[in-house]
Amino acid sequence: MIARALVQQSRVLLLDEPTSKLDIRNQLEVMNIIRTLVDKQGLLSILVIHDLNLASQYVDQLIMLTEGKIYAAGTPVSVLIQENIRVVYGVEAAVVLEDNLPHVIPKRSV
After folding, report:
1. Of 71, 80, 82, which Cα lies nearest the Cα of 100?
2. Which of 45, 75, 89, 110 is placed for a possible disulfide with 13 were both Cys, Cβ 3.0 to 4.6 Å?
3. pLDDT (tens digit, 0 to 9) for every residue of the chain, 110 residues total?
4. How far out from the chain centre does Cα 54 lie?
5. Confidence (pTM)
6. Considering only CA atoms, which of 53, 54, 38, 50 is closest in space to residue 5?
7. 27-61 residues labelled b (16+ CB within 10 A) or e (exposed)
8. DSSP classification of residue 1
9. Which Gene3D superfamilies does the entry mention (predicted)?
């Protein structure tokens, strides 16, 4: 689907769960391809993704929604914090910074 969009010379990629049903290696490969397209070809990519750790690694800006409304928006470091994860997902989680990127470790439902 990404190739089809590129053939059409799209300047914007709208992607809905582009890594679903992929193993870890292929998830990283798809996200690397998207990131490279954004960086080298100046494309705008808007994607829906539920994997918070993948989002943290690859996106510049993140919007967290709850009940169809924006709850938080900004960089992954500013959005992926314990309080936001608790409110939006109903999950207690540890958020660990590594290489200045947040990594979410879910602990339990609240």
Report:
1. 80
2. 45
3. 777 777 787 889 999 999 999 999 999 999 999 999 999 999 999 999 999 999 999 999 999 999 999 999 999 999 999 999 999 999 999 999 999 999 999 999 99
4. 5
5. 0.90
6. 38
7. beebbeebeebbeeeebebebebeebebbbbbbee
8. -
9. P-loop containing nucleotide triphosphate hydrolases (3.40.50.300)
